[in-house]
Amino acid sequence: MTEDSAGRLVVTLDLGGVTDKAGLMDRCARDLALPDRFGRNWDSLADSLADPSVWPEGAADRGLVLVVAGWRAYAEARPDEWSVAEEVFAEATDRGPGLFVTLGPGGSSREAADQPG
C-alpha cells in the first residue's frame, strides 16, 4: 500500500490473468484482504467496498483509493460481467465518503503499456 498526495491509502486491485467472475472475486478477496465472510458475489463485493470497517487499517480515517489494474482482458473476455463490476465499483463509491475507485492501466504489468505515458 502507498498513499496519494491527499494522504489517502492507495490499494491496487490487480486483475491481470482474471477471465471470469470467480477469478475477480478471488482477486478482490486477496488484494483487498476481505474477511472470510466475504460472499464472493456482486452484493457482497458492493457491501465490502462500501464498509470502512473492512478496509485496510487507517483507511477509514484517511480515505481509500482503489486502483483497478490489468482489467482489459477480463473486460474483453466477459463484457457483461465487467459491466456489472463497473456498476459495483461506482455504487460503492457513491454509497459513502472516503472511497474512490479508478481504472488504472488495462493491461498486465508484465505487458507493454496499453496507453501512452
TrEMBL record:
Superkingdom to which the source organism belongs: Bacteria
Gene3D superfamilies reported in the protein's UniProt record: Barstar-like
InterPro entries according to UniProt: Barstar, Barstar-like_sf
Alphabetical list of Pfam families matching this protein: Barstar (PF01337)
Record domain Barstar (barnase inhibitor): where: 10-94
Entry similarity comment: Belongs to the barstar family.
Name listed for the protein in its UniProt record: Barstar family protein
Organism in which the protein naturally occurs: Streptomyces anthocyanicus
Upper taxonomic lineage: Bacteria, Bacillati, Actinomycetota, Actinomycetes, Kitasatosporales
